[in-house]
């Protein structure tokens, strides 16, 4: 399932609270994006609902989480918009075709979409997408992060090179994640593939976020 957590850029002076925030976000994502969708699927199929319809309803917890976050923070996060659009597109396609395997693999559309955005930012944008993602989400943990990143981008070639490489790695990771998702969806039964792929999404996004934070910190230190 789609992951609805966002990367964080912790304060160097508040490592312990930042770690607690990361752990809390991972647990929340596992609950909302993996456990609840699978529970919904199991309950509905046990009551006689078809795999395709049950899989459609299983997308409700992540979608509701995005909506709750938007109301809570009084703004719609770009990642949340992408999640909702891709979930809606995947659901519409799977319901029209009646293919349960396609319903399980629907989040591959989201991964490919992110991969295209990441790759396109390297080819067409002045700055890679990872730069904007870090600045947007990191300011919640560190308000001065946007200004710091602007200074680093202007004066630190290691920082620029690191973010470009991170963007390329993230794009490749999204393509690989999508390919693996489609393979497992069409190889395993939905009842087996759904929990595996739900956890896979959380692991991939968490790992990319952690690697990005480490890479950015090292680039800043190298430039300093």
Automatic annotation (TrEMBL):
<feature type="transmembrane region" description="Helical">
    <location>
        <begin position="108"/>
        <end position="125"/>
    </location>
</feature>
<keyword id="KW-0812">Transmembrane</keyword>
<protein>
    <submittedName>
        <fullName>VC0807 family protein</fullName>
    </submittedName>
</protein>
<feature type="transmembrane region" description="Helical">
    <location>
        <begin position="26"/>
        <end position="46"/>
    </location>
</feature>
<feature type="transmembrane region" description="Helical">
    <location>
        <begin position="78"/>
        <end position="96"/>
    </location>
</feature>
<keyword id="KW-0472">Membrane</keyword>
<feature type="transmembrane region" description="Helical">
    <location>
        <begin position="192"/>
        <end position="216"/>
    </location>
</feature>
<keyword id="KW-1133">Transmembrane helix</keyword>
<feature type="transmembrane region" description="Helical">
    <location>
        <begin position="166"/>
        <end position="186"/>
    </location>
</feature>
């Amino acid at each position: 399932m789609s992951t609805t957590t966002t990367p964080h850029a912790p304060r160097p002076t508040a490592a312990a609270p930042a770690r607690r925030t990361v752990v809390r976000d991972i647990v929340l994502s596992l609950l909302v994006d993996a456990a609840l969708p699978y529970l919904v699927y199991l309950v509905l199929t046990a009551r006689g609902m078809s795999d395709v319809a049950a899989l459609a309803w299983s997308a409700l917890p992540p979608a509701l989480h995005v909506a709750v976050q938007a109301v809570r923070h009084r703004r719609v996060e770009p990642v949340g918009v992408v999640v909702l659009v891709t979930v809606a597109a995947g659901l519409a396609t799977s319901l029209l075709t009646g293919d349960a395997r396609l319903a399980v693999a629907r989040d591959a559309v989201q991964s490919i979409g992110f991969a295209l955005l990441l790759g396109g930012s390297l080819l067409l944008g002045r700055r890679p997408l990872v730069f904007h993602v870090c600045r947007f989400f990191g300011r919640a943990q560190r308000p001065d992060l946007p200004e710091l990143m602007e200074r680093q981008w202007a004066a630190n070639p290691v920082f620029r090179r690191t973010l470009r490489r991170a963007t390329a790695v993230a794009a490749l990771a999204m393509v690989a994640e999508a390919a693996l998702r489609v393979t497992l969806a069409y190889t395993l039964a939905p009842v087996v593939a759904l929990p595996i792929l739900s956890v896979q999404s959380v692991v991939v996004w968490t790992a990319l976020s952690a690697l990005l934070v480490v890479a950015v910190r090292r680039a800043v230190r190298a430039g300093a």
